[in-house]
Design goal:
This protein is an alpha/beta fold. Helix content is 33%, strand content 27%. The chain has eight helices and twelve strands.
Amino acid sequence: MIHVAIIGLGAVTRNIHLPAYRQLGGEVSVVAGCDTDGAARTLAQERWHLPEVYDDPKEMIEKTKPDIVAICTPPSLHREQSLMALDYGCHVFCEKPLAESLEQADQIVWASERAKRFVVVNNQFPYMNIHLAAKRLIGSPEFGRLLFLHAWQTFHPTEATEAAWRGALQRRVCFEFGVHVFELIRFFFEDEPVKLFAHMPNPKPDAKSDVINLISVEFADGRAASIVLNRLSKGPERYLDMRLDGEFASIHTSIGGRVG
């Protein structure tokens, strides 16, 4: 039995982590949760029957001694909390994005190596059925070799999506969502890019964060990908669409959104 303690009991924990741990049955036991918000602690106990809740992550780790600490807090806290969990000898399962800068990410990697503990980032998109099905076709006689991928999102911000820490981010679109697309590109191409060009034009000077991301990715063998993340469009909302162009065919995947 693997014992997991969770830092952060907000929406991502309630909607994604706790249901997933429950599906694992006897393999994983959630021993405790921690949040500075009393209402979040109460909800986690009442709905998910967490055996213990805390408002201090250090106290939680010291008392429950988990094997893994799941970090489900805003990105600004990931470095501090990851290093703390590693100092206590725990493995870390961290929500994306891992850190706010390359320097912070390097610090977490070095601490992981010193502690001889794993740090895993929750990049679940490659394991969705729709993306696994597309991956199985790559290299088949019908599709051939993957040559180009285009990914796009059209997103309608609302009061709910801009609430709390997400609404305060200045680097928002690629930092908070684009990491999923980059992970899918690496998954489908099975390679690391050698060139990346990114442009964040600002047609709305009053916008609190970036609203358009235009990104080009290139590989050493000439294959390429492009990403358009658009929070301005008034057209149909799509959470993530992708077109994969192969030697003999194309694949279109689409998840989420509303018809409008």
